[in-house]
Amino acid sequence: MIERLNHVAIAVGDLAAAAGIYRDLLGAKVSAPQTLTEHGVRVVFVELDNTKIELITPLSDDSPIASFIEKRGNGIHHLCYEVNSIKESAKELNQQGCRILGDDKVQIGAHGKPVLFLHPAETDGILIELEEA
Fold first, then answer.
1. What is the pLDDT of residues 71-81, one digit of tens each?
2. Do the beta carbons of residue 76 and residue 8 sit within 8 Å?
3. CATH architecture of the domain covering 2-132
4. pLDDT above 80: residue 104
5. How far is 55 from 22, CA to CA, in rounded Å?
6. Which is the catalytic residue, given 70, 82, 122, 129?
7. What is the mean pLDDT of the segment spanning 94-111?
8. For residues 128 and 118, what is the distance between their CA atoms, to the nearest angstrom?
9. Where do the structural domains in the chain lie, given as residue ranges?
């Protein structure tokens, strides 16, 4: 089902400072910030030859990312893997009894492609995002 790793998402309290570390200290290419109102976040992507790092910060105190940072501090939030068909993947996961966050609803992610998130209880405590390639 899963193909290549698309990105590793890191929740951060200060998006500009975190982006600066990757851009200025580590010399990576960093995208312009994107506001994803429907997800309650603002993101930038650190673009690497073999994958991306998504730096993600909350838009408000009621964002799930805000509560993540409050509980755990900055850190890895989720892993995103590409799949050929998000609908087929969702169907297969449902048949296996896997819980999908958001009432099994496919959303549009930061790359403008369909995504869904697997409940961490189903994946050994790791939040996994699937994105249609």
1. 999 999 999 99
2. yes
3. Roll (3.10)
4. no
5. 10
6. 129
7. 90
8. 5
9. 2-132
